[in-house]
Amino acid sequence: MESVIVAIDGPSGTGKSSTSKAVASALGLSYLDTGAQYRAITWWMITNGVDVSDATAIAAVAGKPVIESGTDPAAPAITVDGLDASGPIRTQEVTSKVSAVSAVPEVRTVITELQRSIAAAAEKGIVVEGRDIGTTVLPDADLKIFLTASPEARAARRSGEIKGSDVAATREALIRRDAADSSRKTSPLAKADDAVEVDTTDLTLQQVVECVVTLVEERRSTPKQVAT
To answer: How much is the pTM?
Structure first.
């Protein structure tokens, strides 16, 4: 099979991670969770005492942490300076501060370069999920998918992942995160003009995965246009 790069974007709670990992596994592709990288650098900032409300302070040290991402969809891993960060990056503290850190241009430059290098090294192809993959990180991706879902569906899913969380509060938090990510000046959350939008509100995970796999296979079977 010809190598293929698939970009899957969308806001939190639309099923990006579950869909991306399942699609990568089904097609024998690598997988990259770019959101985990932004969480990782946010965690590094917090643990190293950087004021995450100070963009200048964040920019000054953006290139210091060494972030490495595993690309096995069955067991994605992420380390920061050699330490396993897969658990620490999922705390509420990191979640509440990641938008501020990821909005800093210097942070996005560092992480975008890392993401591009990982995608380029994936010999069989890769599924990359995030918020600006199709628009900024990999604008020449073979296939771009933009997942959406109603705020209610997204809040219910996210609350199901976090024990004891309140659905209404989760919904408001998601809406605030959307506003922050969509309004930032550098690489905002946005649907690429040539992306295929998939509304996951009333679909099961399996249905979404089957839809995306079909789109990838159709794209693979279509001869690539050669620029003249």
So the answer is: 0.86
